[in-house]
């Protein structure tokens, strides 16, 4: 039983966590431009890593500042389409480089030294500003002199949007009172990989400063010069690319600006606004132009040129129609086409992952409930994308996956599977809460989609009927008192709280919402890092926290959700490991997997705004305007046939007023209670 004493303990725990976070000075701050900046202070040393991706390359930059103020960085380069042997899930060409181009410069005939980093900024680029002195004064009385900065060096790192290249720009500024001479050397290193280990033989990697010869410059006080460098790779039959790095920077920032402007979220909370903007970038950039078409892939130095039933079909694909990014939508459709190749009349499981540019599969954990994941994502994507031709193409896949799940229903009316998306890392029994919840949502979506496609009315009604029965079965089979909370067991025999008890809240199953919300934010599950996967452990996977925050908003507990979302957002955007949601810990060292960022964005679209597709021209809306906010808006929504449109929610007394706008003009206006459903049809 959830006693008064337990409630007091829970309240004190939450207040402690939130107060501890409020008192901590964030390492990073938000700039007016929307970027985040770390102004270097005494909290050194500090090290972090960030992943950035383009269509043909990904880079994990391991960077930091030593205790003496010196910048350090290692470039972990990944070329997803340069395949290695064995050509499996992890077979992208990967190499690490620690080249320090600043150390190659000569200023007044001397090397740079005594670096002091001033700031590091992230805005789609990683930009580092440092001060350098020149020449060591190490004899006589000069040994006691403080080095005087002569040069301000700005370094920017970013991936090419469409080439297999990491780009680097260096700007040397004279901050002394006299002219200085600077020699930028011609520098080029060529690496040939082992031909036995490459699918296409030996690969060539080139690191270079983009000069044809040594260049001598004279820089007047307050003036500067810029030179460029790159790391690229190519296969036999291809050539080294000679590119304009300034143009590559322009294209990278144009991509970031486009993603930031599409589906923009505006609220009184700048941290949540900015975290949402950054999450859109990470969700959209990790798409690779493979031999098997555009593939959205998780990343993390492990998962490229491949798609998964959970990361892509379930997490990311339902989000892309809202973002309005053509390549994102193309990657979503392509992933469903790839999975559809494995439909079969015997109803054997669809692979969990299609790897190696579509040439192979992975199914190492058995059936993880993958058909439920695919049906869930494909049906939601089809409704929101509102393209009838695409929906007709996806319909057989959706039907097949639903039939597969139906054939896996046990005597209790619950879908069975070998595992769940955690693939045996934690117990899931032979029938878990997650798979049945996703199957339920897929049935609901299919009932809507059948109408849009002109199927016989009996088809829509039958899916709706099955959904109703399954919802009751979920509550009856999984509903349980766990550790004193009236919530859900994750599988039969489970008696320890699990973070995935949030799943029903994200699909509109609210019968256990009160106990579930209390359990999620109890000291047994909630930690300084978000939700623990299982009570009593120290393992956390951000995906469960992201699902939970969305579900708690959907359940109407918006203040509880807002408190914890604000805390989480500050940790991920401005804390010690920035700027995106992460995969997990301790596994993977908190990698910036891409689909987790899509899940963050869905907290806003599906949680705070409560958007649920019901047709090509219709959706339900359930705004959850937090008590401390007087308004919020979602601009440039690209989902549904009448897009783009904006949604504005304003407080009016104890109620809210919701506007739907097209071309800046209201086309729908609603006065409702906060947190009440609005059915919108055009």
UniProtKB/TrEMBL annotation:
The keyword Cell division does not apply. InterPro entries: 6-hairpin_glycosidase_sf, 6hp_glycosidase-like_sf. Keywords: Signal. The keyword Oxidoreductase does not apply. Residues 1-24 form the signal peptide. One of its GO terms (biological process) is carbohydrate metabolic process. PANTHER family: ALPHA-L-RHAMNOSIDASE SIX-HAIRPIN GLYCOSIDASE DOMAIN-CONTAINING PROTEIN, C, PUTATIVE (AFU_ORTHOLOGUE AFUA_3G02880)-RELATED. This is Alpha-L-rhamnosidase six-hairpin glycosidase domain-containing protein. It comes from Bacteroides ovatus.
């Amino acid at each position: 039983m959830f006693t008064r004493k337990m409630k007091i303990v829970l309240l004190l725990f939450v207040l402690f966590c939130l107060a501890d976070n409020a008192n901590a000075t964030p390492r990073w701050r938000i700039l007016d431009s929307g970027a985040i900046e770390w102004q270097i202070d005494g909290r050194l040393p500090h090290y972090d890593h960030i992943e950035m991706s383009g269509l043909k390359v990904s880079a994990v930059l391991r960077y930091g500042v030593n205790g003496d103020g010196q910048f350090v960085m290692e470039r972990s380069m990944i070329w997803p389409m340069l395949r290695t042997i064995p050509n499996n899930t992890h077979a992208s060409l990967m190499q690490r480089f620690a080249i320090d181009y600043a150390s190659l410069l000569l200023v007044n005939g001397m090397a740079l030294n005594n670096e002091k980093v001033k700031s590091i900024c992230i805005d789609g680029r990683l930009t580092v500003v440092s001060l350098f002195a020149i020449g060591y004064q190490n004899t006589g009385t000069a040994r006691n002199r403080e080095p005087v900065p002569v040069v301000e060096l700005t370094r920017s790192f970013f991936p090419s949007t469409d080439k297999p290249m990491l780009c680097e720009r260096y700007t040397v500024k004279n901050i002394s009172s006299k002219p200085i001479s600077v020699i930028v050397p011609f520098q080029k290193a060529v690496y040939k990989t082992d031909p036995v280990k490459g699918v296409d033989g030996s690969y060539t990697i080139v690191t270079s400063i983009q000069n044809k010869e040594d260049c001598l410059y004279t820089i007047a006080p307050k003036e500067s010069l810029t030179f460029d460098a790159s790391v690229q790779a190519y296969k036999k039959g291809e050539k080294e690319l000679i590119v304009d790095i300034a143009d590559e920077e322009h294209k990278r920032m144009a991509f970031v600006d486009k993603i930031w402007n599409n589906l923009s979220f505006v609220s009184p909370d700048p941290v949540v606004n900015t975290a949402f903007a950054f999450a859109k970038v990470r969700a959209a950039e990790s798409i690779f132009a493979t031999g098997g078409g555009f593939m959205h892939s998780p990343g993390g130095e492990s998962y490229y040129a491949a798609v998964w039933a959970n990361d892509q079909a379930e997490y990311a694909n339902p989000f892309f129609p809202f973002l309005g990014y053509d390549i994102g939508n193309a990657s979503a459709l392509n992933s469903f086409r790839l999975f559809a190749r494995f439909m079969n009349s015997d109803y054997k499981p669809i692979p969990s992952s299609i790897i190696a540019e579509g040439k192979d599969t992975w199914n190492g954990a058995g059936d993880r409930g993958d058909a439920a994941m695919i049906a869930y994502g494909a049906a939601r994507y089809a409704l929101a994308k509102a393209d009838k031709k695409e929906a007709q193409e996806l319909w057989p896949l959706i039907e097949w996956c639903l039939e597969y799940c139906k054939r896996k229903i046990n005597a209790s009316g619950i879908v069975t599977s070998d595992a769940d998306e955690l693939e045996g890392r934690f117990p899931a029994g032979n029938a878990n809460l997650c798979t049945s919840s996703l199957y339920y949502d897929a049935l609901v979506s299919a009932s809507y989609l059948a109408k849009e496609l002109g199927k016989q009315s009996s088809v829509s009604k039958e899916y709706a009927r099955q959904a109703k029965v399954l919802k009751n079965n979920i509550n009856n089979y999984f509903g349980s008192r766990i550790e004193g909370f009236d919530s859900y067991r994750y599988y039969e025999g489970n008696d320890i709280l699990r973070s995935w008890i949030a799943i029903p809240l994200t699909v509109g199953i609210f019968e256990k919402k009160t106990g579930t919300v209390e359990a999620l934010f109890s000291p047994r599950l909630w930690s300084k890092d978000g939700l623990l996967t299982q009570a009593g452990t120290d393992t956390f996977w951000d995906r469960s926290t992201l699902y939970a925050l969305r579900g708690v908003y959907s359940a109407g507990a918006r203040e509880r959700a807002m408190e914890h979302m604000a805390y989480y957002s500050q940790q991920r955007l401005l804390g010690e490991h920035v700027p995106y949601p992460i995969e997990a810990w301790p596994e993977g060292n908190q990698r910036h997997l891409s689909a987790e960022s899509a899940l963050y964005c869905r907290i806003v679209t599906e949680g705070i705004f409560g958007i649920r597709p019901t047709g090509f021209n219709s959706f339900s809306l359930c705004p959850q305007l937090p008590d401390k906010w007087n308004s919020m808006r979602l601009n440039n929504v690209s989902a549904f046939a009448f897009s783009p449109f904006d949604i504005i929610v304003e407080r009016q007394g104890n109620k809210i007023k919701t506007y739907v706008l097209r071309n800046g003009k209201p086309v729908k206006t609603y006065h409702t209670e906060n947190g009440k459903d609005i059915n919108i049809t055009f």
